[in-house]
What does this fold into?
Amino acid sequence: MKKLILAALLAVSVSTFAQCKKEMEKKCHTEKHSPDERNEFGMEKLSSEQRTQLMVKKMTLELDLNAKQQEQVKQIIAEQMVKREAMRAEQMAKKEEDKKRTADQIFVIKNKILDEQIAMKNKMKTILSPEQLEKWKAIQETHQAKMKEGRGRNEGKKCCKEKKECKGGKEEKE
It folds into this structure.
């Protein structure tokens, strides 16, 4: 009986270690490429025009947009992409300078992002019907929830490049 329990315990610990190692290897593989070289799927980066087209098509499917709405949404998304890429480039430049942001800088950035979201919402109100607007708001809320969940899940994880080893679900130094 003791041997059976010991064998089961050994099997569970080995499988736990193997799963953690796979996750760390997967994370390291995706970290080999900078965010500029890949999109959220780990593939090579799409152009802003390609991303805009995909977003418009996805919104068309989800919200049942007509042709006029598609054109209006395409313009808004294209403008948003340009602003996002400029912001991302600015952030990457600051990151390369290795400067930490002050509380005032963080406030300015977050305030700018919220202003952009308010402007986007107001533009969408003029384009979408009330039913479409409700669907769009629900989609935005679920997207934000997923983003928050993703940030919380990745906190505290270390890459195998840093010679970390997972033990019992927690990562520790060797």
Q: What stands out?
A: The chain has a mean pLDDT of 76. The helical segments are 2-31, 48-63, 67-96, 103-127, 130-154. The CA atoms of residues 59 and 65 lie 7 Å apart. The first helix runs from residue 2 to 31.
